[in-house]
Amino acid sequence: MSGSRASMRNYPLLTGLLFLALSCAAPIRQFYPGAYFSEDRIYQNKTIGFSFTFRGNWEICTDPNEMREHRSYVKELHALGAELLFVGNTVEKTQGTRGIVFNLNKTNKEYAEYIQRINSADQFLDSGLVDTIIANIPMVSWRYEKQGFRFIEFFFKVDTYNVRIAFWTPPDMFPNFLPVYTEIIGSLNITGRN
């Protein structure tokens, strides 16, 4: 009984130490920092050299240290040499988005095929990869369904950087928002590296 009381007395101390250890985790370093300007709904990445404008009311996070739910994914990408540029959702949380960059210097098709291959076990209703030109920029688009959501991803290249922008929503909403996602990616502007 006395051992149990002693461990109960130490519980707040142990909890405090655990909290302190978790809150002092090393910050995640960004290779390619970007910014989201909510007033104008513009995502800009000067390091890589591109920007585009969201349509609608989105909450976008560009700091990996604030992406608590995605911390393990951020670290997994870093281990591969890639980076999660941003992650976000609409304010009502019915739609999501993310941007990933990987300095592979592959063609759009090669990079998209690589991503499609490593995700092949998880998805269904794969519509295949489609070469397209949006905003005068060659891209590959890919539509698929996974874990109860329908996705569209756009793959494009800036210099040697392979960029992947994804949008998703429930399947019944997807046809209504596909034109919006296409319009968003259609605002893409390759600005050059600063």
Q: Can you tell me the CATH topology?
A: Protein Transport Mog1p, Chain A
Relevant CATH superfamily: Mog1/PsbP, alpha/beta/alpha sandwich
Q: Indicate the CATH architecture.
A: 3-Layer(aba) Sandwich
Helix content: 25-40%
Characterize the main sheet: 7 strands, antiparallel
Main CATH class: Alpha Beta
Which regions have little confidence, pLDDT < 50, spanning 5+ residues? 4-8, 13-24
Rg, Cα atoms, Å? 20 Å
- The total of beta strands comes to 11
Shape: globular
Q: Strands of the biggest beta sheet: in what spatial order?
A: 4-5-6-10-9-8-7
The portion of residues forming beta strands comes to 35-45%
Number of helices: 4
Q: Average pLDDT, to the nearest integer?
A: 86
What does the model show?
By secondary structure, the protein is α+β, with helices and mostly antiparallel strands. It contains four helices and eleven strands, in the order αββββαββαββββαβ. The radius of gyration is 20 Å and the shape is globular. The protein starts with a helix and ends with a strand. Mean pLDDT is 86; it is low at 4-8 and 13-24.
Outline the fold blueprint.
Layout lengths: L1 H22 L11 E3 L4 E4 L4 E4 L4 E4 L9 H10 L1 E9 L5 E7 L5 H11 L10 E6 L2 E10 L2 E10 L2 E9 L4 H13 L2 E2 L4
Antiparallel strand pairs: 1-2, 2-3, 3-11, 4-5, 5-6, 6-10, 7-8, 8-9, 9-10
Q: What can be said about this structure in brief?
A:
This protein is of the alpha+beta class. It has one domain (about 25-190): Protein Transport Mog1p, Chain A. It is built from 4 helices and 11 strands.
